[in-house]
């Protein structure tokens, strides 16, 4: 018998029944089932079941996040080097990046899981796998300079107010990771905007850690020329060697993850495609009607697609099935609207540089309404059977 | 012949499909009439233990309509009447003689049928223990004999992927089938005879009686699915259905005046040749497979049916037996294994890249979690129900909304539960809700 299995079997009596640590049963169960996949006998129809379960479902999102995560770590280190006037190699970039990113991820997981365990113990249910994703998504949306105590507060807000007060996984109306980010964004604007996108202790003169979206061309200069001069030409934006939130910079890594999720059927391709479509259509419209060449309204679809966190948001945040609509036509509309509102906020609203987070949260609110409309339409087509 | 377009369902290749051979297994010692596979019944016993019975003697009837009788499929003595909890009737076990002595019923020719009154026919079928072959939607209770069904659906394929093939059931019995269809015409002019495409090819002269074909995709041939795709108005909701083996029984009964005791079943057991078996109604599991051990789960269907134990007998509505290995496994890091043999509707396993015959086991592959609104259930439901929303309507006791969402269109095929990654027992929830609603309404 597997020695690890033996260990779990020995420990089991302490955590179940009248054991000493009965209160911690959800924690024990979560750890045990992580190693040993539970597969109880079926007791009711149908007697056979699909092999996909929620553990695998959520792990696949984590898998899809790996390119984004690894590149995020590398880029954090690389940008840090640039700001110090050095050009780090691959290993150096990774090590420096990891020293900034890993603590954020560890704090996010540790604090978030603490809340999950507390709620699981109080409510006497098993720990849901949903947090595996939330706990990783949230750090990836943060700037690498974020103070760790803010990470802890943010994830606490996201898990408790964003999810658990509604009843836990499956019942929340807002994406918990984005709720956490929005909380930090509005509560600690100094840590979440301005020149905070590059993690470094001391910078060389004249360095600004701004993001592409905060740039506007001065006095009639074309926005695209201005972006290129600032180092934000399309290839840079596409590959992602630019300052920004940890996970959002690389368009290609986000697309890789999105493709993986769409092929495996974990994320709804309708949301992702709808979102990209919405963004492209809206940005083309602005490009056509805009007469101010120096603002982002004149940037066109490619720049809008690759700059900022849109691809990250639409691939990993908007596709959270719990907060997205549950009907297919509504999913198209939901995705499209996220793309649409992202551009609207970026271009028309001067208060916010980036609009993905707000667009997704806004559409989260509307997804039950979208579902309701689609369901009513479908029911009107149905021959009643009452 | 019309093709019914059904776009949703489960396309799966399963290992161990039965071949077309037919072996004969004669039951030893006992047969039984089970009450467990008869939905909604409230049985009233008509016999006592140790009482001698003939083939065709009524054993119990339905308290709700005492003219509907369930009769003995063999001649012998009542060995035991088995009750479950709260004195619920489970089985009436008969120790039987190899020599049948039949209760003689009137026999009819084709011209007799033409002249016969419908009421007379109904009474005759009820007395012969065969009226219950007709099931009425949406509850699938026995048909209400006062009701004029808008259509009757004859399903040539059974409820399960492994049900006996229609070409075996119909082999050299074309006349009997035709006679059966004549009888059905007494009830309604609109009769739908449907079979799935792959079996249609093999039916030969029967083809001319087929009105509809359905895709080779579970559960397209389920009468509930066919009805959903054919119905044009709410009146069609109260249609009837009958399976091929029952139609053949009625036909044989009418033409010979004897209760038909033979039955073709399939046995699906992993790692063995699966053939069709010709046996008697109410045969025991032990007779079919004396070697079966307790590591197997014995069921009468993959997606629906009931769980049997070694000592149980096959019911009137059941014609396939599955013996699936069901050890409770705990694979290390099972949630992230490549899964080259694991079937999934999603593409999250490497098996989706391979074209293989799947071997299935009776295991949940995960634990129950909250619904995450992923929509897998909706994308597989053949009757366009949105199971995730229906489940939530039922969870909040909103029966009106549930009915609007199509609760009664649910054919209990089990695909929503099959595919749910949160392992929510959707089919059981719906099935119970339909039954409760039907009971409350009655």
Describe, in plain words, how this protein is organized in 3D.
The complex is a heterodimer of chains A (386) and B (442). Chain A is mainly alpha-helical. Chain A folds into two domains: 54-192; 213-378, no CATH class. The mean pLDDT of chain A is 88. In chain A, helix 3 (54-83) runs antiparallel to helix 4 (90-123) and helix 4 crosses helix 5. Chain A has helices spanning 3-15, 25-35, 54-83, 90-123, 130-140, 148-160, 176-187, 189-192, 223-229, 234-239, 251-264, 269-289, 300-306, 310-317, 328-348, 356-381; one strand at 36-39. Chain A is globular and about 75 Å long. In chain A, 62% of the residues lie in helices and 1% in strands. In chain B, a hairpin with a 6-residue loop joins strand 16 (262-269) and strand 17 (276-280). Among the domains of chain B are: 30-261, no CATH class; 367-441, no CATH class. A seven-stranded mixed beta sheet of chain B has the order 1-14-13-12-15-10-11. A six-stranded mixed beta sheet of chain B has the order 2-17-16-20-18-19, with no helix packed on it. Chain B has 13 helices and 21 strands. In chain B, helix 4 crosses helix 7 and helix 10 crosses helix 13. Chain B is 23% helix and 21% strand. By secondary structure, chain B is of the alpha/beta class. In chain B, 50% of the residues are buried. Chain B has helices at residues 110-115, 118-127, 166-169, 174-184, 197-200, 223-230, 244-256, 285-288, 376-380, 387-395, 399-404, 415-419, 426-441; strands spanning 2-3, 22-24, 30-34, 43-45, 52-53, 58-62, 65-71, 76-83, 89-96, 135-136, 141-142, 152-155, 191-196, 212-214, 240-243, 262-269, 276-280, 296-299, 307-308, 320-325, 329-332. The chains are: A mainly alpha (386), B alpha/beta (442). Chains A and B meet through helix 2, strand 1, helix 3 and helix 16 of A and strand 21, helix 12 and helix 13 of B. Strand 1 (36-39) of chain A pairs antiparallel with strand 21 (329-332) of chain B.
